[in-house]
Amino acid sequence: HLGQPQPPSHVKKKDYRFGRMLGSGTFGEVYECVRKSDKTSVAIKVIRKALLNGDHTLVEKEMDVMRDLHHPNIVEYLDYFESRERYYLVFSLATGGELFERITQRGRFSEQDAVREIRTVFQAVEYLHEHNVVHRDLKPENLLYRDNSAESPLVIADFGIAKTVTDESDVLTTVCGSYGYVAPEIMRRHGYGKPVDIWSLGVITFTLLCGYSPYYYCETPQHMLLAMERHEVVFEKRYWWGVSEGAKEFIRALLHPDPAKRPTAAEALRMPWLRGTTALDNDLL
Ligand code: ADP
Ligand code: MG
Questions:
Q1: Helices (H), 45-194
Q2: Model-level pTM?
Q3: Which helix (H) or strand (E) holds 10?
Q4: Which of 2, 14, 120, 228 is buried most, with the most CB atoms less than 10 Å from its CB?
Q5: Rounded to whole angstroms, how far apart are CA atoms 142 and 134?
Q6: Positive or negative CA dihedral for 14, 20, 23, 28?
Q7: Active site residue ranges
Q8: Is there a contact between 59 and 103 (Cβ–Cβ < 8 Å)?
Q9: Using a 6 Å cutoff on CB, does residue 144 contact ligand 1?
Q10: 75 lines ligand 1 (CB under 6 A)
Q11: CA 6 from chain center: how many Å?
């Protein structure tokens, strides 16, 4: 815990050899590192205290949420140390890069490939929600491939703004998340909860299948909010003609403006498209 006695940080920092930078984020960078004692490769997120504007609870919250999470498709929290200027959070390493990069490289995913990725993420989100954790920032930059192989599974990373809700009626109100991925009830400052993650997965599924985001044509946040609340999901023919109705129904269900009408993670996993029974093998489109 922060504030509790820690071994002098230079001792722990010396336990690791710092290597290449894996990514950069809001408060610092993430590096690939090797734990010298057993040669294990890890990822260390370095957070500059000066950038936290005095709110050091952010770091503490990220650790508190992650400490109890153990799932094959969620980055594992391993250790923490700090120096005068920085916090260091140690996580299991994902070497395969961001889902974001693979969308950029491939343009779009076939339905069968998309089902595989989205199902993996949903299994992890089901676990999170069972543990009353709302991630709040699901997007392709925070979904990482464990390794470089074509079969590599995805893991969820970045619990920087994740939140524990103590019971079903617990309502969150902080406006946060990433533009284009946040649910309308967050933008409206209505109370919200677990369904915001389902919404983000709807945006991600849409993006995977066509290579662009569902509200790209909205010129302002206000316009986007109206489109969301009208349940406007446009499947432009020239990009979507080869995609199954099951996929479109699935996306429309996740992008329901009423959070209570969205499927839960468990329900989504039972929908035909995500079970893989209706997805087309449209790799050559
Ligand atoms: P931020 O909250 O600043 O967005 P993230 O936790 O998302 O920080 O980390 C920033 C980037 O660093 C990620 O998008 C990813 O590219 C990389 N990264 C984060 N955690 C890991 C990890 N465990 N293994 C590999 N790369 C990681
Ligand atoms: Mg991130």
A1: 57-67, 99-106, 111-130, 184-187
A2: 0.92
A3: helix 9-13
A4: 228
A5: 14
A6: positive
A7: 137
A8: no
A9: yes
A10: yes
A11: 30
Q: Is 49 annotated as a binding residue?
A: yes
Within 8 A by CB and 6+ apart from 108, the residues are 208, 209, 210, 211, 285
The Cα–Cα gap between 130 and 124 comes to 10
Question: What is the ipTM, given to two decimal places?
Answer: 0.98
**Both tokens of residue 273?**
């498209």
Residues around the ion ligand 2 (C-beta < 5 A): 25, 142, 158
Gap from CA of 266 to ligand 1 centroid (Å): 27
**Could you tell me which residues come within 8 angstroms of residue 60 by beta carbon, excluding any fewer than 6 positions away?**
1, 2
Which amino acid, 186? I
Residue 75 CA to ligand 1 center (angstroms) comes to: 10
The pLDDT profile of the chain, 285 residues, written as one tens digit per residue, is: 555 555 555 568 899 999 999 998 788 899 999 999 999 999 999 999 998 888 888 888 889 999 999 999 999 999 999 999 999 999 999 999 999 999 999 999 999 999 999 999 999 999 999 999 999 999 999 999 999 999 999 999 999 999 998 766 667 888 888 999 999 999 988 888 999 999 999 999 999 999 999 999 999 999 999 999 999 999 999 999 999 999 999 999 999 999 999 999 999 999 999 998 776 776 644
Q: Can you read off the two tokens belonging to residue 112?
A: 């069968």
Beta carbon of 211 within 6 Å of any ligand 1 atom: no
* Residue 57 CB-density burial (10 A; 0-12 exposed, 13-18 middle, 19+ buried): exposed
Distance, CA of 229 to CA of 121 (rounded, Å): 25
Ligand nearest to the CA of 162: 1
152-183 core/surface letters (b: 16 or more CB in 10 A; e: else): bbbbbbbbbbbbebeeeeeebeeeebeebbbb
DSSP per position, 195-208? HHHHHHHHHHHHHH
Distance between CA atoms of 20 and 260, rounded to whole angstroms? Answer: 44
